[in-house]
Amino acid sequence: xxxxxxxxxxxxxxxxxxxxxxxxxxxxxxxxxxxxxxxxxxxxxxxxxxxxxxxxxxxxxxxxxxxxxxxxxxxxxxxxxxxxxxxxxxxxxxxxxxxxxxxxxxxxxxxxxxxxxxxxxxxxxxxxxxxxxxxxxxxxxxxxxxxxxxxxxxxxxxxxxxxxxxxxxxxxxxxxxxxxxxxxxxxxxxxxxxxxxxxxxxxxxxxxxxxxxxxxxxxxxxxxxxxxxxxxxxxxxxxxxxxxxxxxxxxxxxxxxxxxxxxxxxxxxxxxxxxxxxxxxxxxxxxxxxxxxxxxxxxxxxxxxxxxxxxxxxxxxxxxxxxxxxxxxxxxxxxxxxxxxxxxxxxxxxxxxxxxxxxxxxxxxxxxxxxxxxxxxxxxxxxxxxxxxxxxxxxxxxxxxxxxxxxxxxxxxxxxxxxxxxxxxxxxxxxxxxxxxxxxxxxxxxxxxxxxxxxxxxxxxxxxxxxxxxxxxxxxxxxxxxxxxxxxxxxxxxxxxxxxxxxxxxxxxxxxxxxxx
Length: 517
Ligand SMILES: C[C@H](N)C(=O)N[C@@H](Cc1c[nH]cn1)C(=O)O
Ligand SMILES: [Zn+2]
Ligand SMILES: [Zn+2]
What we know:
37% of the residues lie in helices and 20% in strands. The protein is α+β, with helices and mostly antiparallel strands and 517 residues long. A hairpin with a 2-residue loop joins strand 6 and strand 7 (154-156).
C-alpha cells in the first residue's frame, strides 16, 4: 500500500508555516492591559468552572434520538448565556430530519449571536458546538460523565473539551472585557450548533442563506474544536480531514432466529457482514477498496520536509492512546497517516447481540458502521461509488441470498487553509504572550464539517485555535480539559482579541495610506 505514488497536488496550498515562524516576530511580555485581563480571569476561575459544570450536566448527546430534547435544552442555555453577555441572539429553526428507521426528529436551532458593531473593529466570528458524543458511566468512566469532577487539576466530564469548555472559554473572554468595562477590541459573531457530532445537519443550508447577511461583515472565522498535537505545547491548526460515514446492512428475514434450530442451514447476516467488514482494510492499515487512494494528493518533497520539522513525541502520543504499538514507526509516517492520507475505521454493528452473557440468537438484520476520513483531493461521490462497488463485489462472491444495502448517510469534506494572513499571525502572537512559546502549526485528523463549509461559502479566512491538550480524550472515556488549559485558553482568546484588533487596524491604516498616496 504505497500511498505516495498518486497525482500531484500542493498547488492549492499557499502556505509555509516554517517561513511564517521565521518572519513573524512577537513579544512574550504582557502589556498592562493584558495583565489586568489575565488577573481578572485568574480571580474568576471558580465562576468559569461553575458554568462549565452546569453545561456538562446537560446530556446533550446529538447521536441518540431519545436525548434530542436535552440538546434542545442545551441550546436554550447557550442562547441565554450569550444574551446575558449582551449579545443579540437569533435561534434559527432548522426544521426536522428523518432517521434511517423513518422516524422524524426536530433539529436543534442554530444560534447566531452578535455583539458590537464598531466600524473601526474587525468582526470575528466564533464557531462552537454544545452537543456531545454519547457517554455512560458503564463505558468505563471513573466518574459520572455528566458531573464535572476535578481530579489533580483535570476537569472530567463529557463535553469538557469537546466542545463546551472551549465555547465557554470564548464567552468568558468576552465577559472579561465587559466586566472590566474595557472597550471591545473586536465585534463578535457567534455560530453555536447542536448537531456537530451527528454531522452538522442543516448547517450548510443556513450558512448559504446567511452568507449575504449575517456573514457579510465578518472578517475572520475562528473555530476552537480540536486539540493540540502534544499534551503541553499549544498549536494552531490549518487543516482537517473530512469524513464519509457508511452503513452496510445485511438482512435475511423479518425475525431473529434460534441458532440451534436454524444455525448451519442458513446464510447468517452477521457472517456476511463480518466478511464484508473484513474486506475493507488489511492488517497494515491499508484500505482495500480499489481506487480509494487515486484521488489522494501526492506528497511533495517540500511537504515531507515540513513533517520532519514538526515536534511530535511518539511515546507521549502512544501513552495518550493507551495502545502497545502504532502501525507506523516514525513520526513522519504517523503524522502523514493522521493528517493527509485517508483512514478507514469500523465503529460498530447495530443489531448484533452485544450485552454481557450469552444469547444463542441469529440476528435477522445487522448494520455495520464504518467511516473513511477524507483528504485533499478525494471526491465524496467517487468514494461512495467505490465503496458500494467493492462491497457489492465481495457480497456477490459469497452467493448469499440475503439482501445488502449500502448507504452513505454523512459526507464531510476536508479543509486546508493558507496561514499567511493576519488571523494566524494574531493567534501566534497571543499564544506567545500567554504560553511563552510559539505554537506548532498542525493539521488535524478529525473532522469539523463546518470548517470547509465556512471556507467555501463565505470565502473568509478560517482558523482553528485549539485550547485542549492531546490527552483530553475526545469521544473517549474520561474526557477532560485541564483547569490550566481552560483558564489559560480563556486568556489566549482575550489576548487574541487584542492582537487581531491591532493587526487589523494597522493593516487598514496602511492600505488607507497607500490609497491616499
Ligand atoms: C473534531 C471534532 N471535535 C469532532 O469530534 N468531530 C467529529 C465529527 C464527525 C465526523 N464524522 C461524523 N462526525 C469527528 O471528527 O468524528
Ligand atoms: Zn467537537
Ligand atoms: Zn467530537
